[in-house]
Amino acid sequence: MQKDQYNEVFIVIIIASFIFLILATAIVFFMLYFQKKKFQHAKEKGELEKQYAEQLLQSRLEMQEQTFDTISQEIHDNVGQMLSLAKLQLSIMEQAETNDKLLIADIKSNVGNALSDLRDIAKSLSTSRVQELTLLQAIDQELQRIDKTGLIKCKVDVNGNEKQLPEQKKIIIFRIVQESLQNILKHANATEINVGFNYLKEQLEIVINDNGSGFEIDDDHIVEHGLGLQNIFKRSILVGGNALISSILNRGTKITLIIPYA
Question: How far is the C-alpha of 232 from the C-alpha of 151, rounded, in Å?
Answer without folding.
Answer: 25
